[in-house]
């Protein structure tokens, strides 16, 4: 796919004006980094307007930068860590004060999309499923395992029978043995996707377990293996895949559940607080 894009920007039709040449040269030299750019950031780097960038992309045949990124994603796999080969530019950006500003802007752009996610039908379906399940099992892998464990721990303050499953027993039998009806698997996976995530979702559905998948825009199989699929913007940061957006989504889910359950949560927190005092895990 990147070869097709390179061929486009190297054509005479897309190199007519001064701004055309600026954009063509930029895309040609930075095609591997385009998934981590925005139209605004490209415009700032080239000192042109975002509208100029948008018009150029439409002449290329793309309805905005997201559509171009989508084609690049389907044509190649992007690693989660993007430092190699970019140190000189990143150092320059840091010295010019652009690196931190770019990181902050990317977080803001991603977080601004959470409202749309929380307004989608899948959001309320997820909240209802997390509340109504007889048991909730949370699973995640690799570098997102930690925030999924955090979610499971926090969710256990709102309702009983919540468990993080790590699969170290080799069977996930606690989830898949069929001994209790109404179970829910809350599966969290983002690129680079775990080899276990998709088989676990399929086995869970085969066992009659409802599957909620929280994933990012790079996931090609999410809706196929889940009952409810929540898709969050993928990380496009210039360094690594951060967890701020996913953590914010999980915190918002927990807040939503607390509001719905109301006094039930208060009673459970009181019980857990008493038990914490009994076993002395926290300072008074």
UniProtKB/TrEMBL annotation:
It comes from the Bacteria. GO terms for molecular function: carbohydrate derivative binding; DNA binding; DNA-binding transcription factor activity. Residues 3-79 form the HTH rpiR-type domain. InterPro entries: Homeodomain-like_sf, HTH_RpiR, RpiR-like, SIS_dom_sf, WH-like_DNA-bd_sf. Gene3D superfamilies: Glucose-6-phosphate isomerase like protein, domain 1, Winged helix-like DNA-binding domain superfamily/Winged helix DNA-binding domain. SUPFAM superfamilies: Homeodomain-like, SIS domain. One of its GO terms (biological process) is carbohydrate derivative metabolic process. Coiled coil: none annotated. PANTHER family: GLUCOKINASE (PTHR30514), RPIR-FAMILY TRANSCRIPTIONAL REGULATOR (PTHR30514:SF18). This is MurR/RpiR family transcriptional regulator. It comes from Shinella zoogloeoides (Crabtreella saccharophila). The lineage of its organism: Bacteria, Pseudomonadati, Pseudomonadota, Alphaproteobacteria, Hyphomicrobiales.
């Amino acid at each position: 796919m990147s070869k097709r894009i390179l061929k486009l920007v190297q054509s005479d039709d897309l190199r007519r004006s001064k701004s055309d040449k600026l954009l063509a040269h930029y895309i040609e030299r930075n095609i591997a980094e385009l998934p981590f750019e925005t139209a605004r950031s490209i415009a700032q780097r080239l000192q042109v307007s975002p509208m100029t960038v948008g018009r150029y992309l439409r002449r290329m045949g793309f309805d905005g930068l997201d559509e171009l990124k989508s084609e690049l994603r389907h044509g190649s796999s992007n690693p989660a860590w993007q430092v190699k080969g970019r140190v000189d530019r990143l150092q320059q950006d840091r010295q010019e004060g652009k690196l931190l500003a770019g990181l902050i802007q990317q977080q803001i752009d991603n977080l601004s999309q959470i409202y749309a996610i929380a307004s989608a039908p899948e959001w309320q379906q997820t909240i209802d499923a997390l509340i109504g399940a007889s048991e909730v099992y949370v699973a995640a892998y690799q570098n997102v395992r930690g925030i999924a464990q955090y979610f499971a721990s926090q969710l256990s303050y709102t309702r009983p029978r919540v468990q993080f499953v790590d699969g170290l027993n080799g069977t996930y039998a606690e989830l898949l043995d069929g001994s209790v009806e109404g179970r829910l698997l809350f599966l969290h996976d983002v690129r680079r996707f775990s080899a276990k995530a998709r088989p676990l979702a399929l086995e869970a559905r085969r066992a009659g377990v409802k599957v909620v998948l929280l994933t990012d825009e790079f996931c090609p199989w999410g809706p196929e293996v889940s009952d409810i699929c929540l898709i969050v913007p993928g990380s496009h940061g210039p360094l690594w895949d951060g967890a701020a957006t996913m953590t914010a989504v999980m915190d918002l889910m927990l807040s939503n559940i607390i509001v719905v359950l109301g006094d039930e949560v208060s009673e459970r927190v009181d019980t857990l607080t008493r038990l914490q005092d009994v076993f002395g895990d926290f300072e008074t």
